[in-house]
Amino acid sequence: MAEEGYERHIAQMIQQVILTAPGERVNLPEFGCGIRQLLFAPNSDVLATTTQFLIFQALDRWLGDVITNIQVNVQTEEETLSVIVRYVVLRTQTGQQTTVTVSV
To answer: Is 45 exposed, middle or buried (0-12, 13-18, 19+ CB in 10 A)?
Structure first.
């Protein structure tokens, strides 16, 4: 049970990194990746690739000490952006997946 709580906590941290815009946190102004800003950009393969890159970089930077083998998949459908993150929890060596959905 304790490991389930830890893995849920990591999933919540992933959501925080994805949904926080740089500059939002006073003590950590570089924290986050700012994908909400990308929601208003024209939907394209370039946007999807850019979003994947930004999220991967942010997760690696801020959570690289607790997760590894990070894979990010971005899917767009009209006003909704779904981010699927697959990763391995270092402490338990278990594969996990978290989905974050952002709507305009």
So the answer is: exposed
Query: Which CATH number does the domain housing residue 89 bear?
Result: 3.10.450.40
pLDDT digits (tens, 9 = 90+) for 53-87: 999 999 999 999 999 999 999 887 777 788 999 99
Q: Which two three-digit tokens encode residue 21?
A: 């815009």
Structural domain of residue 46, as residue ranges?
2-103
Split into its structural domains, the chain has a count of 1
Helix axis angle, 2-19 to 45-63, nearest 10°: 130
Q: Look-up: residue for tokens 């993150």?
A: 85
Of 66, 57, 56, which is closest to residue 11 (Cα–Cα)?
66
